[in-house]
Design a protein that fits this description.
The chain is an alpha/beta fold. The chain is built from 5 helices and 9 strands; from the N terminus they run E-H-E-H-E-E-H-E-H-E-E-E-E-H. Helix 1 crosses helix 5 and helix 3 packs across helix 4. The relative contact order is 0.18.
Length: 169
């Protein structure tokens, strides 16, 4: 089965976030990775666009029951009809997550991923502190290529640690 990496970020993204997401999608596709997003606009659309331009496959986990809501670069729209609760499915569908910029929806996806032990690579995204101390839960990346390399490395480490009866993703 092909490796899947989730790319998360805001649907109302800045031009810089869009550029980063498109490059991340392209880099993932060049490495044969299936790109999973929330399937809508902004960072999600840019990551899918980059992946498609490089010949990759994209999956969009949609909040609604309407496949027509998917951005034009989604190959496989998955309609959930569960609104933002689909964020859990988005992050659990990848062996690692790349977070690019993002608003509160992205923050919730980061939290779901980290609480489930899914590695999160951050590219100009949220940072955390706990009890006044900086947290290193998110693996920071310097640029899109670095984010993809770190995601692949983390995904492979996670893959080796999972039991043989593991699920898809």
């Amino acid at each position: 089965m092909k490796l899947q990496i989730s790319v998360i970020g805001s649907s109302e993204a800045t031009p810089e976030a869009m550029r980063l997401a498109e490059e991340v999608g392209r880099e993932l596709a060049k490495r044969g990775v299936t790109v999973v997003t929330g399937g809508l606009t902004g960072v999600m659309e840019a990551a899918c666009k980059g992946a498609k331009e490089a010949g990759g496959t994209t999956i969009g986990i949609l909040p609604s029951s309407d496949p027509g809501e998917a951005n034009p670069y989604v190959d496989i729209p998955i309609c959930t009809g569960i609104g933002y609760a689909r964020n859990v499915i988005v992050v659990r569908s990848g062996r690692a997550v790349i977070a690019i910029a993002g608003a509160f929806g992205t923050l919730s996806e980061i939290a779901h991923a980290l609480s489930d032990g899914i590695p999160v690579i951050g590219l100009n995204t949220w940072s955390f502190s706990q009890n006044g101390m900086g947290s290193r839960e998110i693996i920071l990346a310097h640029d899109p290529a670095d984010a993809v390399e770190k995601a692949l490395e983390a995904a492979l480490v996670r893959e080796k640690a999972l039991p043989a009866s593991r699920g898809a993703g």
